[in-house]
Amino acid sequence: MKEKVEFMPDKRTWHPSPLLGQITLVTSLNSDGTSNVAPKRWISMMAFSPPLLALGCNLGHWTGRNILERKEFVVNIPGAELAEQAWKVHELPHPRPVEAAGLTPIPAIKVKPPRIEECRAHLECVLDQHLAYGQELVILGRIVAGSIDAEALQAEDPYSYLRLVVFLEGHRYGIVEQAHQLPSQPERRTGA
Ligand SMILES: Cc1cc2nc3c(=O)[nH]c(=O)nc-3n(C[C@H](O)[C@H](O)[C@H](O)COP(=O)(O)O)c2cc1C
Protein backbone atom coordinates (compact mmCIF):
# COMPACT_ATOMS: atom_id res chain seq x y z
CA MET A 1 0.00 0.00 0.00
CA LYS A 2 1.24 3.53 -0.81
CA GLU A 3 2.11 5.60 2.24
CA LYS A 4 -0.48 8.35 2.97
CA VAL A 5 0.34 11.46 4.99
CA GLU A 6 -2.50 13.12 6.89
CA PHE A 7 -3.03 16.87 6.66
CA MET A 8 -5.23 19.39 8.48
CA PRO A 9 -8.67 20.44 7.14
CA ASP A 10 -7.61 24.12 7.44
CA LYS A 11 -6.96 25.11 3.82
CA ARG A 12 -4.40 27.74 4.87
CA THR A 13 -2.03 24.92 5.80
CA TRP A 14 -2.36 22.99 2.50
CA HIS A 15 0.91 22.48 0.67
CA PRO A 16 0.51 21.38 -2.02
CA SER A 17 -3.18 22.15 -2.41
CA PRO A 18 -5.15 19.17 -3.77
CA LEU A 19 -8.13 21.37 -4.75
CA LEU A 20 -7.86 23.99 -7.47
CA GLY A 21 -9.80 27.24 -7.73
CA GLN A 22 -10.16 29.00 -11.04
CA ILE A 23 -8.95 32.59 -10.88
CA THR A 24 -11.66 35.06 -11.86
CA LEU A 25 -12.14 38.82 -11.63
CA VAL A 26 -15.50 39.60 -10.07
CA THR A 27 -17.15 42.94 -10.73
CA SER A 28 -19.92 44.42 -8.58
CA LEU A 29 -21.38 47.87 -8.00
CA ASN A 30 -20.71 50.17 -5.04
CA SER A 31 -23.56 52.20 -3.50
CA ASP A 32 -22.60 55.26 -5.58
CA GLY A 33 -22.88 53.25 -8.82
CA THR A 34 -19.11 52.96 -9.42
CA SER A 35 -17.67 49.52 -10.13
CA ASN A 36 -15.50 47.34 -7.91
CA VAL A 37 -13.20 44.59 -9.14
CA ALA A 38 -11.57 41.84 -7.07
CA PRO A 39 -9.87 38.50 -7.79
CA LYS A 40 -11.84 35.47 -6.55
CA ARG A 41 -10.89 31.79 -6.85
CA TRP A 42 -13.39 30.05 -4.57
CA ILE A 43 -15.90 29.64 -7.35
CA SER A 44 -17.58 26.74 -9.12
CA MET A 45 -20.73 25.61 -10.93
CA MET A 46 -23.29 24.02 -8.60
CA ALA A 47 -26.35 23.19 -10.74
CA PHE A 48 -27.49 23.05 -14.38
CA SER A 49 -31.08 24.09 -13.80
CA PRO A 50 -31.26 26.74 -12.61
CA PRO A 51 -27.69 27.54 -13.69
CA LEU A 52 -26.14 28.21 -10.30
CA LEU A 53 -22.59 28.97 -9.29
CA ALA A 54 -21.18 29.30 -5.78
CA LEU A 55 -18.69 31.96 -4.73
CA GLY A 56 -16.92 31.98 -1.38
CA CYS A 57 -16.30 35.54 -0.26
CA ASN A 58 -15.43 37.30 2.97
CA LEU A 59 -18.18 39.54 4.33
CA GLY A 60 -15.57 42.21 5.04
CA HIS A 61 -14.84 42.46 1.30
CA TRP A 62 -16.45 45.08 -0.91
CA THR A 63 -17.48 42.32 -3.32
CA GLY A 64 -19.42 40.39 -0.66
CA ARG A 65 -21.18 43.48 0.68
CA ASN A 66 -21.98 44.78 -2.81
CA ILE A 67 -23.49 41.44 -3.83
CA LEU A 68 -25.65 41.21 -0.70
CA GLU A 69 -26.84 44.81 -1.12
CA ARG A 70 -27.28 45.14 -4.88
CA LYS A 71 -27.69 41.45 -5.73
CA GLU A 72 -25.78 41.39 -9.00
CA PHE A 73 -22.23 40.56 -10.09
CA VAL A 74 -20.22 39.48 -13.10
CA VAL A 75 -17.64 36.69 -13.03
CA ASN A 76 -15.02 37.69 -15.60
CA ILE A 77 -12.71 34.90 -16.74
CA PRO A 78 -9.16 36.04 -17.49
CA GLY A 79 -6.61 34.26 -19.64
CA ALA A 80 -3.12 33.51 -18.33
CA GLU A 81 -1.75 36.88 -19.45
CA LEU A 82 -3.81 38.49 -16.65
CA ALA A 83 -2.67 36.07 -13.91
CA GLU A 84 -0.15 38.44 -12.33
CA GLN A 85 -2.69 41.23 -12.63
CA ALA A 86 -5.01 39.29 -10.31
CA TRP A 87 -2.52 39.64 -7.44
CA LYS A 88 -1.89 43.31 -8.31
CA VAL A 89 -5.63 44.03 -8.29
CA HIS A 90 -5.90 42.42 -4.85
CA GLU A 91 -3.32 44.88 -3.50
CA LEU A 92 -4.95 48.02 -4.93
CA PRO A 93 -6.66 50.27 -2.37
CA HIS A 94 -10.40 50.93 -2.43
CA PRO A 95 -12.35 52.40 -4.06
CA ARG A 96 -11.18 50.07 -6.82
CA PRO A 97 -13.11 50.57 -10.05
CA VAL A 98 -12.23 48.45 -13.08
CA GLU A 99 -10.25 51.37 -14.59
CA ALA A 100 -8.01 51.58 -11.48
CA ALA A 101 -6.82 48.07 -12.32
CA GLY A 102 -5.81 49.25 -15.81
CA LEU A 103 -8.71 47.27 -17.30
CA THR A 104 -11.63 48.34 -19.50
CA PRO A 105 -15.25 48.19 -18.29
CA ILE A 106 -17.85 47.34 -20.94
CA PRO A 107 -21.61 47.08 -20.32
CA ALA A 108 -22.97 43.67 -19.36
CA ILE A 109 -25.90 42.16 -21.28
CA LYS A 110 -28.38 41.77 -18.39
CA VAL A 111 -26.93 43.12 -15.13
CA LYS A 112 -25.62 46.50 -14.00
CA PRO A 113 -22.02 45.66 -12.99
CA PRO A 114 -19.69 45.84 -16.00
CA ARG A 115 -17.87 43.12 -17.88
CA ILE A 116 -14.09 43.47 -18.28
CA GLU A 117 -13.13 43.68 -21.94
CA GLU A 118 -9.67 42.12 -21.50
CA CYS A 119 -11.17 38.95 -20.01
CA ARG A 120 -12.06 35.98 -22.22
CA ALA A 121 -15.55 35.15 -20.96
CA HIS A 122 -18.17 36.55 -18.61
CA LEU A 123 -20.92 35.06 -16.44
CA GLU A 124 -23.55 37.58 -15.38
CA CYS A 125 -25.21 36.60 -12.10
CA VAL A 126 -28.01 37.64 -9.77
CA LEU A 127 -27.93 36.66 -6.11
CA ASP A 128 -30.10 33.60 -5.50
CA GLN A 129 -29.30 33.07 -1.82
CA HIS A 130 -26.39 33.06 0.58
CA LEU A 131 -25.10 31.24 3.63
CA ALA A 132 -23.04 33.00 6.30
CA TYR A 133 -20.44 31.32 8.51
CA GLY A 134 -19.23 34.14 10.74
CA GLN A 135 -17.39 36.47 8.38
CA GLU A 136 -17.42 33.96 5.50
CA LEU A 137 -20.13 33.96 2.88
CA VAL A 138 -21.17 31.30 0.40
CA ILE A 139 -22.98 33.16 -2.34
CA LEU A 140 -25.20 31.29 -4.77
CA GLY A 141 -25.48 33.23 -8.02
CA ARG A 142 -27.96 32.44 -10.75
CA ILE A 143 -26.33 32.93 -14.16
CA VAL A 144 -28.65 35.09 -16.27
CA ALA A 145 -26.33 35.78 -19.22
CA GLY A 146 -22.99 34.61 -20.54
CA SER A 147 -20.59 35.81 -23.21
CA ILE A 148 -17.23 34.72 -24.62
CA ASP A 149 -14.66 36.07 -27.09
CA ALA A 150 -15.72 35.06 -30.60
CA GLU A 151 -12.10 34.03 -31.22
CA ALA A 152 -12.48 31.23 -28.66
CA LEU A 153 -15.15 29.62 -30.80
CA GLN A 154 -13.10 29.98 -33.98
CA ALA A 155 -9.97 28.37 -32.50
CA GLU A 156 -9.27 24.70 -33.27
CA ASP A 157 -8.80 24.12 -29.53
CA PRO A 158 -10.81 26.80 -27.67
CA TYR A 159 -8.94 25.93 -24.46
CA SER A 160 -5.58 26.86 -26.03
CA TYR A 161 -7.14 30.24 -26.71
CA LEU A 162 -8.71 30.66 -23.26
CA ARG A 163 -5.60 29.65 -21.27
CA LEU A 164 -7.62 29.45 -18.04
CA VAL A 165 -5.75 30.07 -14.80
CA VAL A 166 -6.08 28.21 -11.51
CA PHE A 167 -4.95 29.25 -8.06
CA LEU A 168 -2.63 26.73 -6.41
CA GLU A 169 -1.40 28.36 -3.19
CA GLY A 170 0.16 31.65 -2.05
CA HIS A 171 1.49 33.33 -5.18
CA ARG A 172 1.45 30.19 -7.35
CA TYR A 173 -0.90 29.49 -10.19
CA GLY A 174 -1.34 26.96 -12.99
CA ILE A 175 -2.43 27.36 -16.60
CA VAL A 176 -4.69 25.06 -18.64
CA GLU A 177 -2.68 25.05 -21.87
CA GLN A 178 -4.61 22.54 -23.94
CA ALA A 179 -7.52 20.12 -23.98
CA HIS A 180 -7.07 16.35 -24.22
CA GLN A 181 -9.76 14.41 -26.03
CA LEU A 182 -10.63 10.87 -24.94
CA PRO A 183 -9.61 8.72 -27.94
CA SER A 184 -12.85 6.78 -28.33
CA GLN A 185 -15.30 9.63 -27.75
CA PRO A 186 -16.58 12.13 -30.33
CA GLU A 187 -15.84 15.78 -29.60
CA ARG A 188 -18.69 17.52 -27.81
CA ARG A 189 -18.83 21.28 -28.04
CA THR A 190 -21.35 22.00 -25.29
CA GLY A 191 -22.27 20.68 -21.85
CA ALA A 192 -20.30 18.68 -19.32
C1 LIG B 1 -5.67 35.15 -6.86
C2 LIG B 1 -6.55 35.57 -5.71
C3 LIG B 1 -7.74 34.92 -5.48
C4 LIG B 1 -8.58 35.30 -4.42
N1 LIG B 1 -9.74 34.62 -4.20
C5 LIG B 1 -10.58 34.99 -3.19
C6 LIG B 1 -11.83 34.31 -2.98
O1 LIG B 1 -12.19 33.39 -3.70
N2 LIG B 1 -12.62 34.74 -1.96
C7 LIG B 1 -12.27 35.78 -1.16
O2 LIG B 1 -13.05 36.14 -0.26
N3 LIG B 1 -11.10 36.44 -1.34
C8 LIG B 1 -10.26 36.08 -2.34
N4 LIG B 1 -9.07 36.75 -2.56
C9 LIG B 1 -8.77 37.88 -1.71
C10 LIG B 1 -9.60 39.11 -2.10
O3 LIG B 1 -10.18 39.09 -3.35
C11 LIG B 1 -8.80 40.37 -1.95
O4 LIG B 1 -8.41 40.54 -0.61
C12 LIG B 1 -9.50 41.59 -2.47
O5 LIG B 1 -8.64 42.68 -2.29
C13 LIG B 1 -10.85 41.90 -1.83
O6 LIG B 1 -11.43 42.87 -2.65
P1 LIG B 1 -12.89 43.40 -2.41
O7 LIG B 1 -12.93 43.96 -1.00
O8 LIG B 1 -13.02 44.50 -3.43
O9 LIG B 1 -13.84 42.28 -2.62
C14 LIG B 1 -8.21 36.37 -3.59
C15 LIG B 1 -6.99 37.04 -3.81
C16 LIG B 1 -6.18 36.63 -4.87
C17 LIG B 1 -4.88 37.36 -5.09
Number of helices: 4
What is the H level of CATH, i.e. the homologous superfamily of the domain at 21-150?
A: Electron Transport, Fmn-binding Protein, Chain A
* % residues in beta strands: 35-45%
Radius of gyration: 17 Å
CATH top level assignment of the domain at 21-150: Mainly Beta
Instruction: List cofactors, ions and other ligands.
Output: flavin mononucleotide
Task: Give the rounded overall mean pLDDT.
Answer: 96
Q: Topology of this protein?
A:
Blueprint: E1 21-22, E2 24-29, E3 35-40, E4 43-47, E5 52-58, H1 62-70, E6 72-77, H2 83-91, E7 105-106, E8 115-116, E9 121-133, E10 136-148, H3 150-154, H4 158-162, E11 165-169, E12 172-175
Antiparallel strand pairs: 1-11, 2-3, 2-6, 4-5, 5-10, 6-9, 7-8, 9-10, 11-12
Flavin mononucleotide binds next to strand 3, strand 5, helix 1 and helix 2.
Mind explaining what this structure looks like?
It is a single chain. This protein is mostly beta strands and about 190 residues long. The protein has a domain at about 20-150: Pnp Oxidase, Chain A, CATH 2.30.110.10. The protein contains 4 helices and 12 strands. The protein has a 7-stranded antiparallel sheet with strand order 3-2-6-9-10-5-4. A hairpin with a 2-residue loop joins strand 11 and strand 12. The longest helix is centred in the middle third of the chain and has 9 residues, at about 60-70. It is globular. The model has no long low-confidence stretch (mean pLDDT about 95).
Provide a concise account of the structure shown.
This protein has helices at 62-70, 83-91, 150-154, 158-162, and strands at 21-22, 24-29, 35-40, 43-47, 52-58, 72-77, 105-106, 115-116, 121-133, 136-148, 165-169, 172-175.
